[in-house]
Specification:
Blueprint: E1 2-3, H1 6-19, E2 25-27, H2 31-60, H3 64-73, H4 79-89, H5 100-116, H6 122-137, H7 147-155
Parallel strand pairs: 1-2
Helix pairs in contact: 2-4, 2-5, 2-6, 2-7, 3-4, 5-6
């Protein structure tokens, strides 16, 4: 994603093509930065929403891996459920390569943009609060997928299939 006038983009296009799979011009200068932050706002929403659904399912007694399969076969799937949960959360690896702090920064950029434009972000504002609290609670070097550890703490249940069941499951 790149923003700027076409002649400036054309000047750096060979460099962009050598570092990116797909180059998408999104508008004027600054719009690439905005698009990245807005994309990450949506990605963070998907990660947290999936975590909440899986934790409620776990409390109900549904195996998290089984519920993840249901979600990925249905309309609830998103990039987080299709890649992050199996590879980084259910495996307890928590190493997607993008830090929780960087995600919090991008969420803040997206929400600041919305405020500047007087755009309502009801879910975004809630996500910003949850993500901010999670980052303060987690290790400073925590991966973005570790936001699920914070959700587990709030829910008093874990998605770790090797852990003891929560009180609600006994």
């Amino acid at each position: 994603m790149v923003g700027g006038d076409q002649s400036a983009i054309d000047t750096v296009l060979p460099l962009l093509e050598s570092t990116g799979r797909q180059i998408i011009r999104v508008g004027p200068v600054g719009s690439g930065h905005a698009a990245k932050a807005l994309n990450n706002l949506l990605a963070a929403n998907g990660l947290v929403a999936a975590g909440e659904a899986l934790l409620v399912g776990r409390k109900f007694g549904i195996d998290p891996a089984t519920l993840l399969s249901v979600i990925n076969a249905g309309s609830g799937r998103n990039q987080a459920t299709e890649t992050k949960y199996e590879n980084f959360v259910l495996s307890r690896n928590f190493a997607s390569g993008f830090s929780a702090r960087l995600m919090r920064k991008d969420i803040g950029i997206a929400l600041d943009l919305a405020r500047q434009l007087d755009a309502s972000t009801v879910l975004g504002d809630a996500l910003g609060r949850v993500w901010g609290e999670a980052v303060e609670d987690l290790d400073p070097a925590a991966d973005q997928t570790e936001v699920v550890r914070y959700l587990e703490k709030l829910s008093a249940v874990t998605l770790d299939e090797n852990a003891l069941p929560s009180l609600s499951e006994r």
